[in-house]
Amino acid sequence: VVDKTTQLHKRCETMMRDHNSLEATAESISSKLAVFEDVNKITRQMSLLSSGTTDDVSKLFPPGVDVAEGLHDLFQRLDAVTAFMEEHYDYQMASACLSQMSHLRSRACFAVRSHLMRLLDEAGKELVTVGTREEVSSNLYKGFEAARAAEVRPIIDVLIDVARENDDYVATIYAVHQYYCTVRQASVSEWVNDMLDSMAATEENDEKEGLEEEESDILPYTRHVCRQVLSMARAECRTYTAYFGDDVNGTPGGSSGTSQAGLVAGADEPIEEYLGNCYGKPLYA
């Protein structure tokens, strides 16, 4: 009886080990199959974005789904599949899946870029440059901020969150930065320069006695006009921050701080150049 019992115990232990091993194998196979199934799901999802709707990423998601949340989930799934295939590159389908994920990510980023550019275009069309100085100033800054920032900012935050995973995300941020500057430059730069020239023409010049040679190159704007430039530049930075966020130090993107969007060197170059052209250039000959 003792021998029989011992044998039964050993057989039970062997069966339990085999059972656990089979469960682990089944889970492993299931997780791998889930990855390949997600590849198919992502492909089907991206097929919803036809060539005629590349600037409306809401088409990728069911009605009622928040666009930013949907994009965050999509990008995370793309990156998860990519990471899995890179880790298991010996799989027969790994190379093909990696190429497919790269293509789908590029399509998604292109759609996001087109979507954000359309929103910026719509915001730009609402800008008014006719009226009193106060009315135009309010519209150029607060008006532009209120126009589409609430729609653009959440998607930019998603791109910033995933930017470390792939350069396509950073390139998308860069392209949207650049387009933002194009939209703003057309309306803001000329108005700022005309306003400053008008103010300078009606005021006394600052005394240049005792100035260093480089300082004497500054155009004859009064300190009051220079303060106006600084005030408008700050308003511009607040408007930019409403669309693209700020860094941890509270410094708008640029050389004085590392912005969230500036995860890769050069991501903030369009903004730096734009701010210099609109608010730095008027002060120098």
TrEMBL record:
Top-rank taxon, per record: Eukaryota
Subcellular location: Golgi apparatus membrane
Conserved oligomeric Golgi complex subunit 3 C-terminal domain ranges (all copies): 139-246
Keywords, ordered alphabetically: Golgi apparatus, Membrane, Protein transport, Transport
The Conserved oligomeric Golgi complex subunit 3 N-terminal domain, residue ranges: 2-121
GO biological process assignments: Golgi organization; intra-Golgi vesicle-mediated transport; intracellular protein transport
Pfam families: COG3_C (PF20671), COG3_N (PF04136)
GO cellular component assignments: cis-Golgi network; Golgi membrane; Golgi transport complex
Membrane topology value: Peripheral membrane protein
InterPro entries documented for this protein: COG3_C, COG3_N, COG_su3
PANTHER family for this protein: CONSERVED OLIGOMERIC GOLGI COMPLEX COMPONENT 3, CONSERVED OLIGOMERIC GOLGI COMPLEX SUBUNIT 3
Family per similarity comment: Belongs to the COG3 family.
Protein name as it appears in the record: Conserved oligomeric Golgi complex subunit 3
Lineage: Eukaryota, Sar, Alveolata, Perkinsozoa, Perkinsea
Gene designation: COG3_1
